[in-house]
Amino acid sequence: FEKIPLNLKVNNKPFSLKVEPRVTLLDLLREQLRLTGTKKGCDHGQCGACTVHVDGVRVNSCLSLAVMNEGKSITTIEGLANGDVLHPMQAAFIKHDGFQCGYCTPGQIMSAVACIREGHANSKEEIREYMSGNICRCGAYPNIIDAIQEVKE
Ligand code: FES
């Protein structure tokens, strides 16, 4: 495949890259940019482990071709903390034990931040509905909801 030029920002840093058109945003982040915080679970839009923000909107990065993100601004789990200071959602996940194995956690946290930002954190039911695309096989759901509710308050 011929590589296509791609200019985008990741965690506020500009990148000028050359990318094969078949490469997903997820693989670009993990393999080309070595940002391995974003996880690959299913690679076909069913688990939410690969969730990132594209221009502030949550996206399953396994379903987005990298070249579709020309000029976009991507935020990954690595871009949430402010230096050594955790994002409030990261701190709340730790406080409430919002994970066990941790594999789904980056995606859960990116969705959780979007949940509040988009105004879908007004009740446990609403949070559960918004977060339903993020699968946790350890079953940390109640603690994840507690974490989101605390940050919302
Ligand atoms: Fe993208 Fe599962 S890896 S949704």
From TrEMBL:
<keyword id="KW-0560">Oxidoreductase</keyword>
<keyword id="KW-0001">2Fe-2S</keyword>
<keyword id="KW-0411">Iron-sulfur</keyword>
<keyword id="KW-0408">Iron</keyword>
<keyword id="KW-0479">Metal-binding</keyword>
<dbReference type="GO" id="GO:0051537">
    <property type="term" value="F:2 iron, 2 sulfur cluster binding"/>
</dbReference>
<feature type="domain" description="2Fe-2S ferredoxin-type">
    <location>
        <begin position="4"/>
        <end position="80"/>
    </location>
</feature>
<protein>
    <submittedName>
        <fullName>(2Fe-2S)-binding protein</fullName>
    </submittedName>
</protein>
<dbReference type="GO" id="GO:0046872">
    <property type="term" value="F:metal ion binding"/>
</dbReference>
<dbReference type="GO" id="GO:0016903">
    <property type="term" value="F:oxidoreductase activity, acting on the aldehyde or oxo group of donors"/>
</dbReference>
